[in-house]
Specification:
single chain, alpha+beta, 4-stranded antiparallel beta sheet
Length: about 200
């Protein structure tokens, strides 16, 4: 499919931001501004034409601000992985690109019609002429990378937290964030990032 990297990413991010109740606008773009992200009329951050992100710390929407900036950075990473990967030369897997491989394990990505990048892990068959046992993660790059590391033997599955422990950690993080709202910005970012990673891995209640 034909896709301009910057425009495609902006389209995908705009749709994703709407799911969080945020609005992405290029209408206010002037000078070096490319677009801004807002919540209830309040600007969370803006991006210039070189891709740099600018923001002033928001007291009212601090959580949403950190969440949207992390989301944009992660979607940029997905785009970069896809655009710099070579086509996956394997019959029946048109449109996929080879992000990484180790041994018989493959991490691949493809660009979808909605401009999102979807990820999958596979294993080569015995003769390395085909792929099988696909684990499909859609846009969840973090889970795809973790699954790739486990399947490739870089991480032992027994070293990972089970779902029940992940849920307890996530709830503990929510309590801690509520009890200590005056954390340093770098501490808030670390906590929010850890909670977001855990949240993507635990099932919906």
């Amino acid at each position: 499919m034909e896709d301009n990297g910057t425009e495609g990413l902006l389209t995908a991010f705009t749709k994703r931001a709407e799911l969080y109740g945020c609005h992405v606008s290029a209408e206010k773009a002037a000078g070096d501004r490319l677009f801004s992200c807002e919540k209830d009329g309040a600007e969370l951050f803006w991006v210039d034409k070189s891709g740099d992100i600018f923001f002033q710390r928001s007291e009212q929407f601090g959580t949403e601000q950190r969440q949207m900036i992390r989301l944009l950075k992660e979607m940029r990473e997905c785009r970069f992985l896809y655009e710099t990967a070579k086509p996956l030369d394997m019959a029946g897997e048109d449109g996929y690109r080879l992000v990484s491989e180790l041994g018989n394990t493959v991490l691949a990505a493809r660009l979808c019609e909605d401009h999102e990048v979807w990820f999958v892990t596979w294993e080569y068959d015995y003769e390395r002429t085909g792929l099988w046992q696909g684990h499909y993660y859609e846009t969840d790059i973090q889970s795809a990378k973790l699954d790739f590391a486990v399947r490739a033997g870089m991480i032992k599955e027994s070293d990972l937290f089970p779902k029940e422990e992940q849920l307890v950690l996530y709830k503990a993080g929510m309590v801690f964030e509520a009890m200590y709202p005056k954390l340093k910005p770098e501490e808030q970012n670390l906590l929010a990032g850890a909670m977001e990673k855990i949240k993507t891995a635990i099932p919906e209640e």
